[in-house]
Every structure is written in C-alpha cells, then in structure tokens.
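[Q] Does anyone have a clean structure-token version of this?
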Amino acid sequence: MKSEEVRALFQQFEQASAELEGVDCWSARELQNLLGYSKWENFSKVIDKAKEACNNAGEKISDHFPDVRKMVEIGSGAEKEIDDILLTRYACYLIAQNGDSRKEQIAFAQSYFAVQTRRAEIIEQRILDYERVEARAKLAETEKMLSGILYERGVNDKDFAIIRSKGDQALFKLNTAMLKRKLGVPDNRPVADFLPTINIKAKDLAAEMTSINVQTKDLQGTKPIGVEHIDNNFAVRKMLLERGIVPEQLPPAEDIKKIERKLRVRATPP
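[A] Here you go.
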C-alpha cells in the first residue's frame, strides 16, 4: 500500500470516529464501507465473530457493541430508520482481526486499531501512575503533619514509629515489619512505596482521622494517641471489608521511585 493511500485511510478512520460520554466510537455502518464490505449481511458476520472474541476475552459485549438506530436518506429527501451498532476502539480492533485480511482496508485497520488500543492503554496506565504518585506524596505530607502534632503532645520519633506500626497492624492485620516481608519491601524503604493506590489512600485517611481527632479530643501522650490511631485504622479496614476489599490480600505495586522516574522521562522533551 502506497504512503498516500495509508495517509488517506488514516484520515478517513480518524474522521469517522465520534466521542460518546468520553469514549471514542465508530458507527458499524460507516466502518463497513471503510473496511471494503459492500453488503451489510457479510459485514455483520464479521461483527458476530468479533462479539464472540469479545465474550471469550471476558469483556461484556454490550459495553463494546451497543445496538442503536440511525436515520439514513433513501432519496428525494426521505429518510428511514435502520439498525446500527456503536463500536468502541476495542470492538473495531476485534472486527479488524476477524475480517478478510486480503482486503487492504482490513490490513490497515488491524494495525491502526492495534496502535490506537495500545496508545489508550498507555495513557490509562500513565493516569493511574500519576494518581498513585500523588497519593503517595499526600500520605507523606499527612504523616509529616501528624508527626508534628504528636511531637507537641509528648510523642517522640520512636513512639511515633510504634504508633504507625500499630496502625498498620489494625489496617492490614500485619505490623509494618511483617507487611514488609509479605510484600518483599527492602528494610530501608517505607512500606507505602510498594502499596497499591487504594492502600496508600487508606493509610492516608486513617492518619488524617487521627490528626483531626487528636486535636479535637485534645489527646496527650503516646498511649491515648496510639489507641486513637488503632481505632481509626480499624474503622478504615471495616469500610474496605464491607466493600469486598481485603487490603492485605492486594498484591504489591511497583516501586514508587521507579514510577516517578518513568513519569519524569515521559515528561522530558526530546
């Protein structure tokens, strides 16, 4: 396929897409023509194969192939309503994979939607990485603030570490040392650097609650503040369990410092 043909097809596929509720989608009727199928009956068979592949992959067909109706002109200004299907990027990818690869349009679409799908996955992962880095920074700030509040109330650095470990015990049913061993965290690194985002936010919420309640209740000394922090972590754990989330059973996440380095590299201009 010549470069000008590739550019033309690329432009056609881009122009055919529309955004619905923040999701890129294509009309099956329009995609039929772009992929070189003259008859809807033939193209619908390819769609059926794609739906089967979608189901086999564990995805909901209705999420990627919702049925719709559309109006088309039939001449003399008259219109009639016909069946159509809205196709997500993933649905288009599956259709291209199940189409007649002898068609140049299908061969192009296989590459086009594979690249588009991968690009979307990369963007989604980047957003998740940013969210985790921000959550980790927020936890560090919360714990720094809490440490300052407790210092003014008779809690030294050693006692603060003990209180924090007991909080982990309440939240994860494992103290900090045991949690590190379970997750494979180096001894010289904070356990939070290897926690998934939901667990980082859980620790942050419990610490925020302790910070507020210590001041509201005017707690003084290691023991009452330790009890308060344990109670708050128990409360957060209870909330997670009620939503079907067992925090200590979640797998460890990638080292947050590696994530930060990757994000810096991506943000650096060439």
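[Q] Thanks! Anything notable?
[A] The chain has a mean pLDDT of 87.
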